[in-house]
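Hi, here's the filled form for the chain we discussed.

Project: internal
Contact: R.S.
Residues: 103
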Amino acid sequence: MDVAVLQHSKNEIRFVVALDRNPIPEVLELERWPNSVAERPEPLQKFLTRTAAGPIDIPNWDTGERDTTLQLAHGGVAIGVWEKASDLYYFTNGHFHSVTTSD
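And the returned structure, exactly as it came back:
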């Protein structure tokens, strides 16, 4: 993923990424949330964090057992919500995947 953007409009917030494809870059929308007081009384305080390629420990939410190690071949981008959860998005085997990394 070459570019990651949180795009805010009056009604929505979108998480969009761009991939370097030849001859034309590919733009993908990975997530979308309402940006309306009627839908969500608290403002979303979302932010992006780049994650480098390499191993990353992921909590094992299902069993509470030992953390799982995920090997990121290309790095990723985490969407954090202030004082709430964080989800890591990464690209592997031709597809985007996400995993919750904090709560």
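Let me know if anything looks off before we file it.
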